[in-house]
Amino acid sequence: MTSFNLLVGVCLGYVALLFLVAFLADRVAAQGRGRWLRTPLIYTLSLSIYCTAWTFYGAVGYAVRSGLEYVTIYLGPTIVMIGWWWGLRKLVRVARSQRVTSIADLLSSRYGKSNTLAVGVTILAVIGITPYIALQLQSITLSFATFAEADSASDWPEISSGIWVAIGLALFAILFGTRNLDANERHHGIITAVALEAVVKLVALLAVGIFVVWGIAGGVGDTMARIDASPLGEWSVEPGRWSAIMFLAAAAFVCLPRMFQVLVVEIDNERHLRTAGWAFPLYVLLMSLFVVPIAAIGLDLLPEGTDPDLFVLTLPLSQGQENLAMLSFLGGFSSATSMVIVASMALATMLSNHIVMPLWLSRRGGAAAGSGDLRHIVLRARRLAIIAVLALGYAYYRLSGGGAGLAAIGLVSFAGVAQMVPPLVGGLYWRGATRIGALAGLLVGSLLWLYTLFLPQFVGFMPESIVAAGPFGIAWLRPHALFGITGLDPMTHAVVWSMALNTLVFVGVSLLTVPAPLERLQGAQFVNVFEHSSGLRGWTGYVAQSEDLLVMAQRILGAEDARALFRREAEAQGVRGQLPEPTPDFLERLERHLAGLVGAAAAHAMIGQIVGGTSVSVEDLLAVADESAQILEYSSQLEAKSAELSRTARQLRQANAMLTRLSEQKDAFLGQVSHELRTPMTSIRAFSEILRDTDDLTPEENTRYAAIIHDEALRLTRLLDDLLDLNVLESGKVSLNLKDGNLAQVLDRALSSALAGADRELVVRRDPGAEDVALHTDLDRLAQVFINLVTNALKYCNAEAPELRIRVSRNGPDLAVDFIDNGRGLGPEAQAMVFEKFYRVSGEKAGGAGLGLAICREIMQRLGGDITYLADEGGGAFRVSLPLAPGLADEAGSTVS
Ligand code: ADP
Q1: Which one of 447, 454, 596, 679 has the minimum C-beta count within 10 Å?
Q2: Residue to probe by mutation, ligand 1, list 792, 794, 803, 838, most atoms within 8 Å of CB
Q3: How many A from CA of 561 to the centre of ligand 1?
Q4: How many C-beta atoms surround the C-beta of residue 185 within 10 A?
Q5: Which ranges does the record mark as transmembrane (predicted)?
């Protein structure tokens, strides 16, 4: 019989070995020789902390209770590793590019660096994981107790021994988990020790299995027969429960803080995922291979009432195989310790980063941030947090009395952390996911989990009566049958409700809320991480001169910034002087810094040239060219856009100015019209009132007043006619009546019409030879223009003997007809304005409203010609020009001199 003291001695020796391994690994890594510590194999083995004491001991107990269902616990991670490796790769890439330290950090970073979210996730994790840690403490003390029972000589205080275990683990985690701060400087010591423990527990379980199958049962055939004969042969598959547990195991594999730590934070190179993709499923396959045989043979051989959770230990003991039992004990011990160490370290990082430090900083104000001892504060906070986590675990263990079945506690934990799946997966693939959505979903899911699973599970947290009849006797609020849904086992029930509502609320609230700019930015960086980050090409193994790096960095960052960066790095490394050691981590950080300015590919190529490890490859150059081309194209697109914008703006300005001008003209025009209308109206009213109200008017007066009213009415009619005419012409609604004719005839007609009844003598001088020009135009409209010009000469020529000369000539392709009188003509200002509506030369007594020449211009423009004033002709002089019809131009040319 192994003496109990020997067991304690072996145990202490094993722990000492772990310390040594961790210590050596840390030292080797610190000296920069740690490359072999970072192989895919070690990464795969470190993932084995998924298999805790719960799986080492508990799987057999699970199989005894529920048959093959325990396989689901292993299938979950296998599915993730094989079926979601692309998702894992994305997760690792995101975590590396965002320098994430924990799952709380990842979610907070995705949703706009929200600390509220991180606090929520941390609290959820602590609530969910504490019982799990208690479970590990329990399994260690239980296995000690098993040996103690066998060795009647010792007096083993079962429960209180837990405190020593907890203290030992805390010490280990503090020593190797809080050596340094940077997320990039990983925990080489712990990971190496964990890998060693992974080997120990696998070897132990395989050894027990082989012993059971070939040592006790006598071969595979015999074992199979015994399995068939045992109650294990009668297990049945429950698809609902199986899928629920498989989902939980898959979710926990990614979201458990300790799993996230080894899977995502500690990974050295994302290529390791490729090896782990097949190697880790193989590992869990081996771990699960002998579970059923051990369970069946244990049931067969061991006395009734033996705890099946400890068959792995009690079976070899019962056969007198002390050494095998010792190995098995060390396997269980390894499973428990590696889990507790990594879990407490991961939880401590979350607690210190998201709860302790923010509180401490807000109490100290911003001042502490500037001082240099912040690193010490953070490390101290982490150490305290590790102690707190283990103390909580121990307290829970003491309070719960270590009773509940091992398997149940594990699944409850899994269901808790599974609440992080919707915001995690949503955050990786859906840019529309928002912080409020994630918070709301997480809150609803966690509350449901607490209510339907966590609280009812643990004795003392929730009175029996609530579980049985619902709070206040409300049956549809029973934790295991929400809304009257019965028939599901409590686990499936809780998973379905919490996950469904969590997802629903997350998606719904995300759709209803608008992400803040930072969330939007982070969302884009997460969802499109492969476009934003270059591959993780590490710089391990290359040599570089810091001076050369500084020279290059100065060129790109500017002298001052570069020197400041190098000084900071040197300080962080604890190196004296201005130049940091060119460690791989420093090179990586420098690259990221440069990448912000010159693009990732260019930065990588530049550093590659200096460290000499790589010559610039064609691929690198192409990548650089590609990036520059993209930038160039983008900037030329921007330029084109801005040119287009200013063009549009100019056009808009012009349109606006024109509209303003038109609007002003319209106002002026309306003002003029009403003024012109009012003048004759006023005299018509005045004289008609005189005629109506005065009885003693002489007949002459009567006639005179009536004549005035008649004249004014005529003037009004004329004015209205003119306005209507102008309106028709301006609106373009005029229809031209094109006819063939002769200029002389049109002039004849116009002159006789204008001069008939004239009260003045006007001598008209013409040139009949030149007037014989064939026309094809609207002859009536042309005559109207001529009449107007002749009438104006009659009205406005102030010469003693008024005279009008009509001159016909050819002006290029046009025919020009000039009307020149011998009056005083128009001054320069009037020349510019005379064709505007309502323009009259001031002081002019005779005449109309000033519309005549405006109408003339409109008509001539409709006819394709123009009317202009001729200065320097000695009197009033207007030129009417008219294009000669193409067929008539030659003819005109021959007749016009
Ligand atoms: P209306 O229809 O009132 O005659 P017009 O547009 O024909 O107005 O003429 C505008 C102004 O131009 C007249 O008020 C007049 O002062 C001036 N004007 C026109 N023709 C002559 C001319 N041959 N000699 C001098 N002034 C003229």
Answers
A1: 596
A2: 792
A3: 79
A4: 13
A5: 6-29, 41-64, 70-88, 117-139, 159-178, 190-217, 242-265, 277-299, 336-361, 381-399, 405-429, 436-454, 494-514
Q: Is the pLDDT of residue 522 over 90?
A: no
**CATH (one of 3.90.226.10, 3.30.470.10, 1.10.287.130, 3.30.160.620) for 620-726:** 1.10.287.130
- Ligand 1 contact, 791 CB (< 6 A): no
Distance 796 CA to ligand 1 centre (A): 7
Taking the centre of ligand 1 as the mean of its atom positions, its distance from the CA of residue 840, in whole angstroms, is 6
What is the distance, to the nearest Å, from the Cα of residue 280 to the centroid of all Cα atoms in its chain? Answer: 34
Burial 812-840 (b: 16+ CB within 10 A, else e): eebbbbbbbbbbebbeeeeeeebbebbbb
CATH 1.20.1730.10, applies to 4-29+36-367+383-402? yes
Question: How long is the chain?
Answer: 897
- What's the rounded Cα separation, in Å, for the pair 266 and 219? 42
pTM of the model: 0.59
pLDDT > 70: what percent of the chain?
A: 84
Which residue has the CA at smallest separation from atom 19 of ligand 1?
792
566-600 pLDDT per residue, tens: 888 888 888 777 788 777 778 878 877 776 666 56
Q: Which residue has the tokens 């000539």?
A: 809
Q: How far apart are CA 266 and CA 396, in angstroms?
A: 29
Whether domain 735-896 has CATH 3.30.565.10: the reply is: yes
Least confident of 56-70, 209-223, 548-562, 878-892: 878-892
Yes or no: say if 893 and 885 are a contact pair by the CB < 8 Å rule. Answer: no
Q: What is the pLDDT of residue 503?
A: 94
Domain map of the chain by residue range? 4-29+36-367+383-402, 536-616, 620-726, 735-896
Amino acid 535: pLDDT? 44
Task: Name the residue with tokens 């002459």.
Answer: 700
pLDDT over threshold 70, residue 706: yes
Which pLDDT value is given to residue 371?
46
The atom number, within ligand 1, closest to the CA of 823 reads 24
793 Cβ inside 6 Å of ligand 1: yes
Name residue 775's beta-bridge partners: 741
Angstrom distance (rounded) from CA 188 to CA 21: 10
Residues 784-791 have a mean pLDDT of 94
Pocket-testing residue among 840, 867, 879, ligand 1, by greatest number of atoms within 8 A of Cβ: 840
Closest CA to 46 of 330, 337, 327, 280: 280
Q: Which residues contact 728 (CB under 8 A, 6 or more apart)?
A: 734
Q: pLDDT digit string (tens) for 369-410?
A: 444 456 677 778 888 888 888 888 888 877 766 555 545 677
Over residues 423-437, the mean pLDDT reads 88
The runs of H, that is alpha helices, within 599-617 are 600-611
CA distances from 724 to 101, 671, 719, 731 (A): 85, 16, 9, 11
Instruction: For tokens 């020449």, name the residue.
Output: 853
Report pLDDT digits (tens) over 121-161: 999 998 888 888 888 888 888 887 777 776 554 555 555 66
Gyration radius of the chain's alpha carbons: 50
- CB of 853 shorter than 6 A to ligand 1: yes
Half-sphere exposure of residue 392: CA atoms within 13 angstroms, side-chain side: 21
CB distance 850 to ligand 1 below 6 Å = yes
CA-CA-CA-CA torsion sign (735, 741, 744, 745): negative
**CA 779 to ligand 1 centroid distance, Å:** 23
